[in-house]
């Protein structure tokens, strides 16, 4: 089987920034073990697999080690592939996924994704989390997907150097750290998921499904300009609309080719 492959930098307007994703178009999904081997071979934080379905697309996401229920940057990259390469006349695409139907619309500067929010609840700081982060967070919140740790400043967040091995053994697969933004940004964040084969993710759309409702309560607003302060870095515009989060960003194509499987 030969299948197209696209390597796209998401949540950025320039190459070598944002979060790289592989997008692969297939006639059908092969066995999960094959999909996982392909994702491991691509060795990016996410590989998105697309299968056409009744005018829409079925979408699945794999890290190098596991399948995940939601991925923002690889969905953004998939939308760019559909609307810039496969069907350039389209202005909207719907992806059917493990998180339900996800609609993406073309904008003047990129693409606008419609995702479900991820609410969270306050908890006492778990000692294992503080030890893994090597810092005592101001507050900690939790849901079934992630810990969210509030830090005192952007400077502290950027300097953070957690123990990845310890993070991988927590009872949640991902850890978001966040702090108030300085200058142009409402808030900043970083995301660690060594348990999923991603020590630090460059820019994480799904994390902002938790961050947007969290910061809405603290800032008393529903539209945010956010920055994920990884080494590559990336910008996300977030809009909270009821129980949905609108995430907007741009993409840049890096590589286009074909894979024989």
Write the layout of secondary structure elements.
Elements: E1 2-10, E2 19-25, H1 32-42, E3 46-53, E4 56-62, E5 67-68, H2 72-86, E6 92-97, E7 100-106, E8 111-116, E9 121-123, H3 127-133, E10 139-142, E11 146-150, H4 154-159, H5 164-167, E12 174-180, E13 187-193, E14 198-201, H6 205-219, E15 223-228, E16 234-241, E17 244-249, E18 251-260
Parallel strand pairs: 2-3, 4-6, 11-12, 13-15
Antiparallel strand pairs: 1-2, 1-18, 3-4, 4-5, 6-7, 7-8, 8-17, 9-10, 10-11, 12-13, 13-14, 15-16, 16-17
Q: What do you see in this structure?
A:
This protein has 261 residues and is an alpha+beta fold. It has six helices and 18 strands. The protein has helices at 32-42, 72-86, 127-133, 154-159, 164-167, 205-219, and strands spanning 2-10, 19-25, 46-53, 56-62, 67-68, 92-97, 100-106, 111-116, 121-123, 139-142, 146-150, 174-180, 187-193, 198-201, 223-228, 234-241, 244-249, 251-260.
* SS-derived structural category: alpha+beta
Q: Give helix and strand order, one letter per element, not per position.
A: EEHEEEHEEEEHEEHHEEEHEEEE
Total beta strand runs: 18
Radius of gyration: 18 Å
User: Average pLDDT value?
Assistant: 97
| Uncertain segments | none
Query: Mind telling me the CATH class of the largest domain?
Result: Alpha Beta
Largest sheet: 18 strands, mixed
Shape annotation: globular
Which fold does the CATH topology of the largest domain refer to? Answer: Diaminopimelate Epimerase, Chain A, domain 1
Q: Could you say how many structural domains there are in total?
A: 2
Strand content: 35-45%
Per CATH, the architecture of the largest domain is: Roll
Classified in CATH, the superfamily of the largest domain is: Diaminopimelate Epimerase, Chain A, domain 1
CA-to-CA gap between the ends? Answer: 5 Å
Distinct helical segment count: 6
Fraction of helical residues: 10-25%
